[in-house]
């Protein structure tokens, strides 16, 4: 098994770890007055961690994956990035309302 883009893979995995930390910090900071905003931001950070992990896996091991698996992994990465943007935008909107 050969790693195709090691720096990109490690950067994506570091991003996943950092946003997982933000997810846990957001969860610990939630209380009754910011429950909706906190939940939306938590989901945004969680989906960002998932998309960074999937993207790192894609960039690191794309050469070893079959064509349909590689496409499915990239499509799932793009979908989770979209979910990230949606949840974070909704969280920012909820914070201002």
Q: Could you please describe the fold and organization of this structure?
A:
This protein has about 100 residues and is an all-alpha fold. The chain has one domain (about 15-95). The chain contains three helices and no strands. It has helices spanning about 5-30, 35-60, 65-95. α2 packs antiparallel against α3 (about 65-95). It is elongated. The model has no long low-confidence stretch (mean pLDDT about 95).
Structural class of the secondary elements?
mainly alpha
What is the rounded distance between the termini? 50 Å
Q: What is the strand content?
A: under 5%
Which segments are poorly predicted (pLDDT under 50) over 5 or more consecutive residues? none
> What is the arithmetic mean of pLDDT?
94
Number of helices: 3
Radius of gyration: 15 Å
- Total count of strands: 0
Q: What's the shape?
A: elongated
Whole-number total of structural domains: 1
Main sheet record:
none
**SSE order:** HHH
Proportion in helices: over 70%
Could you provide a short overview of the structure?
The chain is mostly helical and 97 residues long. It has 3 helices and no strands.
